[in-house]
Amino acid sequence: MNDFSDEERAELAELHAARAEKHQAGMAALRNELPGSMRPGEQTGALATLYCEDNGGLGIYLDDTARYVIRMPVDSAVEPGMVDLEGTEATVERSRYSKAEIDTILDTLLLRRWHPEARNYVYAFTYDAKTDRVDADSSAPPEVITPLLESFAEALEVRFSPMRSRGAPH
C-alpha cells in the first residue's frame, strides 16, 4: 500500500506544495512574533514548535507535568533527553517510526485509494505526538477501514465517527 503510482506521487506533490506554502508562512509568522507579546507559556510552546520544525521533528505535546515534549523520528540524529529552549527545558523523545513511515500513512489517508469505496467517506486525521501514532476519525464502515489497519497496524488508530462532508476532504 505504500508504493504510490506516478499519478499518485504527482497528486501528492501538488497537495504538499499547497500545504507547504501555508505552513512556511505560519512558521515565519511564529518566528517574527518571538519574543514579542507572547506570554511565557505561549513562548515556550512556540519555541518547542520551532525546535521541532528546525530539527525534523514529528510533533510536540505537553506531558503530565506541563513540560513540552518534542517527538523526533526514530532515525533522527537528535538524541533523546532534555533540551534548553531559551531558558526553559523541554524533553526530546524518539518515535517508534521514521518520518517517511508517518508520511506514508498520512499520504495514504490523503489519497483515499486503499479501498474502492474509500473516497465515498469522510476522514479527519493527524499525527499525535503524545501517542506516537496517526489518529483518524472516519465515517467509513469496517470493511473499508480494515485494509488500512492491516497495512499500518500499530502506527494508526481509526475511530468511527458519523461525519458529513462540508466540502473538500482533509
Polypeptide structure, described:
The chain is α/β, with parallel strands linked by helices. It has helices spanning 6-33, 40-54, 99-111, 142-152; strands spanning 59-62, 68-72, 81-85, 88-94, 123-128, 133-138, 156-160. Strands 1-2-4-3 form a four-stranded mixed beta sheet, covered by helices on one side. Strands 5-6-7 form a three-stranded mixed beta sheet, covered by helices on one side.
Biggest sheet strand order reads 1-2-4-3
Helix % is 25-40%
Question: Counting H and I runs of at least 4 residues, what is the number of helices?
Answer: 4
**What is the gyration radius calculated from CA atoms?**
18 Å
Which residues form runs of ≥5 with pLDDT under 50? none
Q: What general outline do the C-alpha atoms trace?
A: globular
Total strands: 7
Strand content: 15-25%
Structural class: alpha/beta
Mean pLDDT: 88
First-to-last CA distance: 19 Å
Order of helices and strands: HHEEEEHEEHE
- Number of structural units classed as domains: 2
Largest sheet: 4 strands, mixed
